[in-house]
Amino acid sequence: MKKFFWGVATSSFQIEGHIENDFTEWEREGKFKKSGLDPVYANGANHWLMWKEDFDLLEKLGVNAYRFSLEWARIQPEPDKFSEAALDQYDKMIDYLLEKKIEPFLTLHHFTHPEWFHKISPWHDENSIEVFYRYVEKIFSRFKDRVKFWITFNEPLVWVMAGYGEGNFPPGIKNLEMMMIALSNILEAHKNIYDLIKSTSKESKIGIAKHFIVFKRERDWFLLDKAVRNRINQFFNKMIPDAFVTNKLIANFPTLLKFEKEIELNNKIDFWGVNYYYRLYTKFRLSLDNPFHFYTKHPETDTGWEIYPKGILKILKMISNYGKPIIVTENGIAINNEEVRKKFLKKHLKFVFKALKHNIDVRGYFYWSLLDNYEWLYGKSKRFGLVFVDYENNFKRIPKESYNFYRELIQSYSEKYKKLEREKEAR
Question: Which residues does the annotation mark as catalytic?
């Protein structure tokens, strides 16, 4: 019987605290204020000092897997220097998870970088591929005996759009051609890391956590709305998976962007990580500069997103066409109303289970997130956690109603999953 992974997901910078990287540098220099926001990090959720307490909460939650990332800036504070103290602590963290029979899913890149990275080897520079490879070599040699599941990059398209499209993440560049070059280099880096890991650990599984959005055209009768929807959907949802199959990275937005590059990925990916949160509407607008308009029509969460549970089934069906196993690596909601969060969990898991009944090869589900945390441009104002973090009271952890609700869902769906698998085996 195939194992189903029940977990929660976090990222190092968003929760750890006690670190200096490209995001804290931007905060010091006031660069986030350019977009009208002013996120304050203030040691995230203090996880670096409270990780044991947090991992005890994982055990009580009843998960059998935990997705987290390593903080690159902590491990490699200078180009030629690695911190053994940081690696030692991550060692202890992984060992503690395994003691509790919780499978570590390790993300190698989750948006942040050492301060030096953009100055000497930014992602639009080919040297970035080798720089990141050397970093991952160090990580892999240290943890390969205990980590079986590796996620090379979290939401690479989202990151390049923020860092090179809108310019509201470091390095703060607004150039769509450079954005696509950076994405191409990131995918090359993935391929090289895939080869590195497989060279000595063929049983390891390597994937990418890719953000997917359901796009719906505003006017079903208007062909230009349909054309806009299809173009945006192809770029955001299908461009990267297609590149793994066709060995070509292609983006085409008339008047905005035309990019095509051969890249020998040769389908080197073992699973697709699905990060799913919401639906957006699309429509054509009369503009020579940018006729592609997309927006939230029904904002329902504290981040202004629409809650559309059926969308997770649509995305799972779409990505299943690429013939790889799927893991829901993120799915969550920022809300202070626990009844809404519980309904969100219940409805989304209903559609995940429906996908399993339709023989879609889903291997796991990770709620985002265990803890309230630093939510990028929003700072700490948006709370995704199953556990409340009291920032004003020494980062005290208080499990929310949804924490116990998710634990009950895991128990009930685990039994349903076993029954479903037995039925499949009996056919």
Answer: 155, 330
